[in-house]
Amino acid sequence: MNISEIVERNARRIPNRTAIISEPDKITWSSFNKMVNRLGNSLLDLGVKKGDRIAIYLPNSLEFLIAYFAIARVGAIAVPFNIMYKAAEINYIVNNSDACILFAAQKEASENVAGIRDQLPSVKEIIIVGENSLENTLLFSDLLAQGKDSLEITDCEPDDVVTILYTSGTTGNPKGAMLTHNNYWQQADLNGCYLLHINDQDSLLSANPYCHIFFVTTVLGPMFKGAAVVVMPRFYPEKSLEMITEYKVTHFAGVPTMYIYMLNHYQQNRDKYDLSSLRVVQSAGAAMPAEFIPQIEDSFGVDYCELYGATETCSAVTYERAGHNLAGSIGLVAHSWEVKIVNDEAEEVPVGEVGEMMVKGPGLFKGYWRMPEATKAAFKDGWFFTGDMGYVNEDGYMFIVDRKKDMIICGGYNVYPREIEEMLFTHPAVLEAAVIGVNDSEKGEIPKAFIVPKPGSNVTADEIKVFCKERMAAYKAPREVEIIKELPKNPTGKVLKRELK
Q1: How far apart (Å, rounded) are the C-alpha atoms in residues 57 and 106?
Q2: Cα separation of 122 and 120, whole Å?
Q3: To bridge 437 with a disulfide, which of 4, 172, 445, 481 should be the other Cys (CB 3.0-4.6 Å)?
Q4: Residue 485: left (phi > 0), alpha (psi -120 to 50), or beta?
Q5: What's the rounded Cα separation, in Å, for the pair 29 and 296?
Q6: Structural domains present in the chain
């Protein structure tokens, strides 16, 4: 088994269909497969062996995709991380993984790698995408040009690790989740064949970083079915709408923030775009405020689907079936997964009662790289503790309430920030909202809301307080409200509540 077989399979079956659209180029499956083989052969010439770790410090790009599948094809382990990372973050991940090769973009390598190169003893070669402005580095383009077109795919065991993805590290250093060829293969099947409703004449656009687990949904899922992947290095709402229009994109995937900004832009400029090709849009990474779901479907003329998953589950565990969504729900459990809702003693709770979600399925990660204690703590009898609080209704639809660590205890009451955020999004002047708990001498904690108003709005903190008090229990209503220009987010668009705290 080898996840790169997906590419070769399509190269045999539909060689002349488009595999990658990376402006201004369209790459066929046959050409893309040859590129993967050429780079794979060059990696072997550099002495790369099965199981070696190879770091990828590149933006979403054709080069990222070639590098990723070439690494997998020779049996090595890809260690991708975000192009926005700086020297200290790079230092930790590269050294923790003992990466022997680093693929890096020229500009970012000059700014963030050159100064710490002597601190990366395991790195034997740095391969630059772009101009070779650094000493003692290799050029990606040279390796691609000199490699041979054919390469035998390295046979790997299903349980062999293909990727180490480092979690965001909200507490302590990031943990490297080890994901296997079987994890990726099974989840690519789930995403491509069930979740996305996609086929080999379709195309999917996403700006979510390829270094994120969303890669399984935005790249592997479409590729599993032979659909084209439309590369977008960085998200801009107007650019997304332009690309959907120009390339007749059929599927879009993103985080809620992207849809909120796309909606706002489209509703003011709808005559500029033709979205008639778009059929299915998919959201993950954070809960979509229910207020926006009908707006997305009506404005874009699409079926909206939301999934729930994590780095440790290799993407989707639950998902909404196209055309059958229930606003606010993360859908039904996937046919290949099991989910149970438990209390603090890991005992299942009744239907409708909130508890922590535990999951078991084919995407479940192998463990944390070189962290046996953290791995042991994450599991119980083969079930993974997600840290997410949720419940299931009588029809089997799953609902996320909040992260366990984000729950606010106000005067003895459990308060879930997401419930308040959902209410805030119904206010006509609110573009974005986030709620956290802050210390209070009498209540222990109280909810505080941060509001990003829509352009042109002059909404005040007092107006927001009154709005919430009229619509929810007093202990849930935010006692403090702060109006800000933007919410802090990580590179995938998820709100960083720790920075708000």
Answers
A1: 10
A2: 6
A3: 445
A4: alpha
A5: 32
A6: 5-180 (3.40.50.12780), 184-210+217-359+388-403 (3.40.50.12780), 407-500 (3.30.300.30)
The end-to-end CA distance of the chain, in Å, is 45
Question: Beta 161-166 vs 138-139: how paired, if at all?
Answer: unpaired
Pairwise CA distance, residues 217 & 220, whole Å: 6
> Collapsing DSSP states into helix, strand and coil, what is residue 40?
helix
Tokens of 317: 């565990």
Residue with tokens 């079930």: 383
Distance, in Å, from the CA atom of 205 to the CA atom of 7, rounded to the nearest integer, reads 18
With H, G, I as helix, E, B as strand and everything else as coil, classify residue 220: helix
Give me the DSSP letters along 265-320: HHHHHGGG---TT--EEEE-SSPPPGGGHHHHHHHHT-EEEEEEEEGGGTEEEEEP
pLDDT digit string, tens, across residues 237-249: 999 999 999 999 9
The amino acid occupying position 282 is Q
CB 134 within 8 A of CB 102: no
**Cα–Cα distance, 483 to 52 (Å, whole number):** 49
Structure tokens at 473: 């229990």
User: According to the model, what pLDDT value does residue 137 have?
Assistant: 95
- The first and second tokens of residue 328, run together, are 């606010």
How remote is the C-alpha of 382 from its chain's centroid?
A: 24
Task: Find residue 21's DSSP bridge partners.
Answer: 26, 230
Q: What is the pTM of this model?
A: 0.86
Most confidently modeled range among 5-9, 82-86, 306-310: 5-9
Rounded to whole angstroms, the Cα distance separating 66 from 140 reads 10
Average pLDDT, the chain: 93
Amino acid sitting at position 273:
Y
Copy the structure tokens of residue 267: 């509703």
More confident site: 323 or 428:
428
Would strands 315-319 and 383-392 be described as parallel, antiparallel, or unpaired?
Answer: unpaired
- Tokens for 56, please give them: 């990828």
> Which of 60, 65, 61 lies closest to 10, judged by CA?
65
Place of tokens 């700014």: 111
Tokens for 464, please give them: 């927001």
In three-state secondary structure terms, 349 is coil
CA distance 262 to 295: 11
Residue 494 is predicted with a pLDDT of: 79
Q: Which two tokens stand for residue 339?
A: 């989910």
407-430 pLDDT per residue, tens: 787 876 778 788 899 889 999 999
Q: Are 483 and 477 in contact (CB under 8 A)?
A: no
d(C-alpha 501, C-alpha 448), whole Å: 10
pLDDT classification of 325: cutoffs 50, 70, 90: confident
